[in-house]
């Protein structure tokens, strides 16, 4: 009770006055002056460091310090009131919020990061995000959203919305979001028919997209040419078509592990000339993808746990040594039906070091 009164007292004091670093005792001693209009004259010399940082205003039970509003793990069912208007980071993760209401973020113009991870959000009001004109990071992962929220702030640079119930990515979902750099959409019940062609087209600066552990069966079409990392592991992709990667001239990492890929079309690697790392392990490939000897930069290729039954001496390295600019630093081929003793050592003549090749044994289960 005492504590509650004290908190209330502080809140009302701080509401009216500019922020001052003071101890609890100062306020208690200045009791008389609180009702006055002028600022209190702080006379006490000895300051006791407050256990809970004191801000001008802070939601009940949250902690507010240096523009950070920390309200995680409090069992909250709603976004609290009294969020200071100068808040830059609002952490509401691990609560029980089910709905984001129209005025929940009213006036939070300074907010840079909003963390709503691990709640029970099913509804976000269409205007809820509109005050957040400076929001850069929006973390909505581990909720129960069925759709990508509409009207996300155009300023967002990082969107994390994995582990929800999203089934569709519509063309309008990311309209005008030209500042996005990182997008994490994995672990949603997406299918390829639910992902519109060109849904990602407006993301002109995006460098990282991850859509892992969904039910998509093909690489989404119309990916932005700015991409440098594309992670599509753990899906149900059956084929890598050259066309799907057309124009991705900055792509350096491509993750396609744990899919159902049996075909990598000829010409695919030529579409992604700056690729350095390609993960194709745990698929259904029967041969090493074509085009590796002609690719200048690829250094790491995972092909383990496929159905590759033979490996030729020209599969990885060019005939002439000078044509490949970067030597391989990692090739994995274990858990394939190819008898490893039949693979000629000369196959790996453009590998940086012998230990970079993992051949290993194949055991039929
Ligand atoms: C993919 O589909 C299967 C069956 O249709 C379903 O059991 C599974 O949960 C789905 N995966 C995801 C990530 O939604
Ligand atoms: C792919 O390329 C290889 C060698 O360049 C060639 O032998 C093969 O026939 C081609 N496959 C198709 C389907 O075009």
Automatic annotation (TrEMBL):
Gene3D superfamilies per the UniProt record, alphabetical: Ribonuclease Inhibitor (3.80.10.10)
GO cellular component: extracellular space
Disulphide bond pairs: 58-64, 62-71, 317-350
Subcellular location: Secreted, Extracellular space, Extracellular matrix
Boundaries of every LRRNT domain copy: 57-89
Signal peptide: 1-16
Keywords: Disulfide bond, Extracellular matrix, Glycoprotein, Leucine-rich repeat, Proteoglycan, Repeat, Secreted, Signal
Family: Belongs to the small leucine-rich proteoglycan (SLRP) family. SLRP class I subfamily.
Record note on quaternary structure: Binds to type I and type II collagen, fibronectin and TGF-beta. Forms a ternary complex with MFAP2 and ELN.
Role description: May affect the rate of fibrils formation.
Stated name of the protein: Decorin
């Amino acid at each position: 009770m005492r504590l509650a009164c004290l908190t209330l007292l502080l809140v009302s004091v701080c509401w009216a006055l500019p922020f001052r670093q003071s101890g609890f005792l100062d306020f208690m001693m200045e009791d008389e002056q609180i009702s006055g209009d002028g600022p209190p004259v702080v006379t006490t010399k000895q300051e006791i460091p407050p256990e809970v940082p004191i801000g001008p205003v802070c939601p009940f039970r949250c902690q507010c310090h240096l523009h950070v509003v920390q309200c995680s793990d409090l069992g909250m069912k709603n976004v609290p009131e009294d969020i200071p208007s100068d808040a830059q980071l609002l952490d509401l993760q691990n609560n029980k919020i089910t709905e984001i209401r129209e005025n929940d973020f009213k006036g939070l113009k300074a907010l840079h990061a909003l963390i709503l991870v691990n709640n029970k959000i099913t509804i976000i009001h269409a205007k809820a995000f509109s005050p957040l004109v400076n929001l850069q990071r929006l973390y909505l992962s581990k909720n129960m959203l069925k759709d990508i929220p509409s009207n996300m702030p155009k300023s967002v640079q990082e969107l994390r919305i994995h582990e929800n119930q999203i089934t569709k990515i519509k063309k309008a979902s990311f309209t005008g979001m030209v500042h996005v750099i990182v997008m994490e959409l994995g672990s949603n019940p997406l299918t390829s028919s639910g992902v519109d062609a060109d849904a990602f087209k407006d993301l002109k600066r995006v460098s990282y997209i991850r859509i892992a552990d969904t039910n998509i069966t093909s690489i989404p079409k119309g990916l932005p040419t700015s991409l440098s990392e594309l992670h599509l592991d753990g899906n149900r992709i059956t084929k890598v078509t050259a066309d799907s990667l057309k124009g991705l001239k900055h792509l350096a990492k491509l993750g396609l592990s744990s899919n159902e890929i049996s075909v990598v079309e000829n010409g695919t690697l030529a579409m992604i000339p700056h690729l350095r790392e390609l993960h194709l392990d745990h698929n259904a490939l029967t041969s090493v993808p074509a085009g590796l000897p002609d690719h200048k930069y690829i250094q790491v290729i995972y092909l383990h746990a496929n159905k590759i039954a033979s490996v030729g001496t020209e599969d990885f390295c060019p005939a002439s040594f000078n044509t490949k600019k970067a030597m391989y630093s990692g090739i994995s081929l274990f858990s394939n039906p190819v008898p490893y003793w039949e693979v000629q050592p000369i196959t790996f003549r453009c590998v940086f070091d012998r230990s970079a090749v993992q051949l290993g044994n194949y055991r039929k289960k």
